[in-house]
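Quick review question:
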């Protein structure tokens, strides 16, 4: 097992733990990918936990979107998802064990008292944290039946260090931490407790997440260590805190930079899953100068030792260029099926598949492919773009009449034969080939951009191609 596994024996187990309060955004998708690749590289297990304890904000729609996005990226998990909301009794059980063993205590401070405490801290320009006022008091001092929360008794002296697999050694003075709440007054567990209990119970060995959670590691470790003292077999996980993604301008990633849901890249931007997979992999991780990395190569090569310490920058143009590469590599029938959904009206997928080799040479997304393919299924009379219409002046239409006559006499409807006939006609008219091909393209496609004109003639077929040329030539005068 590679050095970054951090285990002497046993299997690596990672988890991705999104909160279903919205879509699967780019940062979350990359975290999911890094966890999945690390476990696959080490022959371990990749698990999924839905942290849905915030019942007001968690929705089934968001859960479905997250699961759909992960499935689209090809991140399959080794067990059914764990729903944190279903594990409340287990979280409470651990909190009660901490309470019984003296690693946690009941705090009867009222909301008003806590606000007074914070106001005094603000006035003194001190960090706002709980001052431990009930840490050493006996619960009997509280009024009978008074509501309380349960707080973890965090270490007060010394310091704690983490050998983070991305950040290196990180040390925090224990005095900077406070006794945070692990059970609310209504008896429900907080995220900090629930995440630790779930990670332990799921056998998670490596916690790989964004570096905005780095402080949480120091708050969560005391739970592991207290429970290890109580029960044993509660080892610290290996931590790897990955720098967040920034926009091209260096600012925190936002919607204007591309911090959108994975479904938006798929549905609205026409990105292929293998392209997004590859791009997310290269956001903060690298292997030399290699840009295009297959799923199999990624599993073989991935390790935490090549995750950078600096924030990576999201570049939509790089994603689109990479997507263009994967479009050119993609199976034509598969592309035709995806593109057909983006074209209005009836679509002949067989014809679309035949057209893919010439359509996909320059396309950077599925919408560009659909736009490029639209001429195949357009109904006569074709709608002309403004530029295409300008090519069909009287001179252009006169040239169409001539080429129509020559093509109608053409028995061999192949690229080579059509090219020879068109070139011969251009010479006959004493024109450069472009002067003839441009009005032909306008008449055949309604646009000024398309695959090669001879490819267009062959794809449309003799009957339809001549009908389109004749329709424009007939209006000359």
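Suggested answer, residue by residue:
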């Amino acid at each position: 097992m590679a050095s970054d596994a951090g285990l002497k024996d046993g299997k690596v187990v990672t988890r991705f733990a999104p909160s279903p309060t919205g879509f699967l955004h780019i940062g979350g998708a990359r975290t999911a990918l890094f966890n999945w690749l690390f476990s696959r590289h080490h022959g371990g297990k990749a698990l999924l936990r839905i942290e849905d304890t915030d019942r007001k904000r968690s929705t089934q729609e968001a859960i479905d979107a997250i699961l759909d996005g992960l499935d689209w990226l090809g991140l399959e998990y080794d067990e059914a998802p764990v729903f944190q909301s279903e594990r409340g009794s287990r979280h409470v059980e651990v909190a009660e064990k901490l309470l019984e063993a003296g690693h946690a205590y009941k705090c009867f401070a009222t909301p008003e008292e806590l606000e007074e405490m914070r106001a005094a801290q603000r006035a003194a320009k001190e960090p706002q944290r709980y001052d431990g006022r009930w840490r050493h008091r006996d619960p009997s001092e509280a009024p009978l039946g008074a509501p309380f929360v349960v707080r973890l008794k965090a270490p007060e002296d010394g310091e704690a260090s983490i050998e983070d697999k991305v950040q290196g050694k990180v040390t925090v003075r224990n005095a900077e931490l406070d006794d945070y709440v692990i059970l609310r007054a209504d008896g429900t567990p907080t995220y900090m407790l629930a995440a630790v209990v779930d990670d332990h119970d799921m056998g998670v060995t490596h916690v790989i997440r964004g570096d905005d959670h780095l402080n949480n590691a120091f708050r969560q470790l005391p739970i592991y260590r207290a429970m290890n003292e109580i029960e044993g077999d509660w080892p610290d996980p290996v931590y790897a805190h990955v720098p967040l993604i920034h926009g091209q301008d260096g600012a925190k990633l936002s919607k204007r930079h591309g911090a959108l849901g994975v479904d938006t890249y798929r549905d609205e931007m026409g990105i292929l899953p293998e392209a997004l997979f590859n791009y997310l992999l290269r956001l903060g991780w690298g292997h030399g100068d290699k840009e295009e990395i297959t799923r199999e190569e990624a599993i073989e090569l991935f390790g935490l030792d090549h995750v950078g310490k600096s924030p990576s920058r999201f570049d939509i143009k790089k994603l689109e260029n990479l997507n263009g590469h994967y479009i050119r590599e993609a199976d034509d029938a598969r592309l035709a099926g995806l593109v057909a959904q983006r074209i209005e009206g009836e679509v002949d997928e067989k014809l679309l598949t035949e057209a893919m080799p010439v359509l996909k040479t320059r396309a950077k997304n599925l919408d560009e492919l659909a736009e490029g393919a639209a001429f195949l299924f357009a109904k006569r009379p074709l709608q002309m773009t403004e530029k295409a219409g300008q090519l069909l002046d009287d001179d252009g239409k006169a040239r169409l009449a001539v080429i129509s006559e020559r093509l109608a006499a053409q028995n061999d409807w192949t690229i080579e034969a059509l090219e020879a006939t068109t070139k011969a006609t251009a010479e006959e008219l004493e024109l450069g080939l472009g002067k003839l091909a441009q009005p032909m393209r306008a008449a055949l496609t309604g646009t000024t951009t398309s695959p090669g004109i001879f490819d267009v003639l062959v794809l449309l077929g003799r009957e339809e191609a001549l009908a389109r040329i004749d329709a424009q030539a007939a209006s000359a005068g």
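Why it works: The longest strand covers residues 45-50. Residues 214-231 form the longest helix (18 residues).
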